[in-house]
Amino acid sequence: MLHQCVVIIPSYNPEPTLIQYVEELVEKGVQNVIIINDGSESASLSLFESLDQMESCTVLTHGNNQGKGRALKTAFQYVRDRKATMKYLVMADADGQHAVDDVLQLLKVSKERKSGIILGVRDFDQAQVPSKNAFGNKLTSKAFKIFFGKYLSDTQTGLRSFSISELDWLLVLKGERFEYEMNMLIYAIYKSIPIYEQPIQTIYFGEKTVSHYKAFHDSIRIAKLMFRGFVMKNSLVD
Fold it and tell me: What φ, ψ does residue 79 adopt, rounded to 5°?
């Protein structure tokens, strides 16, 4: 099955551990990994060159930072142009917070479900989760329920999987940066596209993480995105 799957990893100024992460994906059978260099600084160029030399890895490059939403769309377009060989996709973050085994499990679930979006959801009640992160994520889940009538336990997860059949709307979905992943969920709700949850490991690296998530500030920002999506639900696609 894995020869029909692709793992997509948007990346901006990644840590060297990204190489080990991709190597582990390949060692466990993933044959197609797409890394998007979203305008990273020159210090990261040698890392991307090393990745691009790996047989199972393709690096797509933006000349300047265009945002996670645009990076994902660049990869989605690349995949759709080669749809004869790829059927299932999983998007993962570059910071190593998504265990390789969980990536593989999401691909398996995606194949079983055939359609819809599979979210890799974390357990924010675990002891290692910083209290501010737990609070922020639970707050946004409650806000999502209020606005859209469906409770999702992890609206901020970057680990998501789906069939290539979903790319038609994902490619025209609005959002070039941070807001794209939220728009994905909102559009799916309004169009009755199934959303499934798959529990995953909850991994935090403390101060070593390269995640740019600031719990309270970003929770407010996310709530604003939800409100805008609620008001502009009919204009989320171009």
Answer: -70, -45
Average pLDDT, the chain: 89
Cα–Cα distances (Å) from 231 to 175, 186, 222, in that order, read: 15, 11, 14
Domains of the chain from N-terminus onward: 2-235 (3.90.550.10)
Kindly state the tokens that stand for 39.
């305008």
The pLDDT tens digits for 112-150 are 998 999 999 998 767 677 677 777 778 889 989 999 999
Judge contact between 96 and 17, C-beta under 8 A.
Answer: yes
Percent of the chain with pLDDT over 90: 70
Strand order in the sheet with 5-11: 57-62, 33-38, 5-11, 88-91, 160-163, 117-121, 195-199
Q: Residue 209 has what pLDDT? A: 45
Output phi, psi for 197, to 5 deg: -115, 135
Rounded Cα distance between 90 and 120, Å, is: 10
